[in-house]
Structure to design on (54 residues):
Protein backbone atom coordinates (compact mmCIF):
# COMPACT_ATOMS: atom_id res chain seq x y z
CA UNK A 1 0.00 0.00 0.00
CA UNK A 2 1.43 3.35 -1.07
CA UNK A 3 0.19 6.40 0.83
CA UNK A 4 0.23 9.82 -0.79
CA UNK A 5 -0.17 13.26 0.77
CA UNK A 6 -2.74 15.77 -0.40
CA UNK A 7 -0.12 17.62 -2.44
CA UNK A 8 1.25 14.41 -3.99
CA UNK A 9 -2.26 13.26 -4.86
CA UNK A 10 -3.16 16.59 -6.43
CA UNK A 11 -0.03 16.48 -8.57
CA UNK A 12 -0.60 12.82 -9.47
CA UNK A 13 -4.19 13.45 -10.58
CA UNK A 14 -3.33 16.85 -12.07
CA UNK A 15 -5.95 18.68 -10.05
CA UNK A 16 -5.69 21.38 -7.41
CA UNK A 17 -5.67 20.57 -3.69
CA UNK A 18 -8.96 22.47 -3.48
CA UNK A 19 -10.51 20.00 -5.93
CA UNK A 20 -9.53 17.16 -3.58
CA UNK A 21 -11.19 19.01 -0.68
CA UNK A 22 -14.31 19.49 -2.83
CA UNK A 23 -14.38 15.81 -3.80
CA UNK A 24 -14.03 14.87 -0.13
CA UNK A 25 -16.98 17.12 0.78
CA UNK A 26 -19.06 15.55 -2.00
CA UNK A 27 -18.08 12.03 -0.95
CA UNK A 28 -16.48 11.45 -4.35
CA UNK A 29 -12.98 10.69 -3.03
CA UNK A 30 -12.52 10.03 0.67
CA UNK A 31 -8.95 10.00 2.03
CA UNK A 32 -7.72 7.63 4.72
CA UNK A 33 -6.56 9.06 8.03
CA UNK A 34 -2.99 8.05 8.77
CA UNK A 35 -1.58 10.92 10.80
CA UNK A 36 -3.34 13.37 8.50
CA UNK A 37 -5.20 12.97 5.25
CA UNK A 38 -3.57 10.38 3.01
CA UNK A 39 -4.66 8.79 -0.22
CA UNK A 40 -3.94 5.20 -1.22
CA UNK A 41 -2.29 5.23 -4.64
CA UNK A 42 -3.65 1.83 -5.64
CA UNK A 43 -7.22 3.00 -4.92
CA UNK A 44 -6.63 6.14 -6.98
CA UNK A 45 -5.34 4.07 -9.89
CA UNK A 46 -8.40 1.84 -9.72
CA UNK A 47 -10.81 4.79 -9.66
CA UNK A 48 -9.06 6.50 -12.57
CA UNK A 49 -9.05 3.26 -14.58
CA UNK A 50 -12.80 2.87 -13.99
CA UNK A 51 -13.23 6.59 -14.78
CA UNK A 52 -15.04 7.21 -11.50
CA UNK A 53 -13.06 10.39 -10.95
CA UNK A 54 -11.68 12.92 -13.41
Amino acid sequence: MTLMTLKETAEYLRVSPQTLYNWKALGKLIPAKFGGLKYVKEELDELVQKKRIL
User: Anything to note?
Assistant: The chain has a mean pLDDT of 90. The longest helix spans residues 17-26.
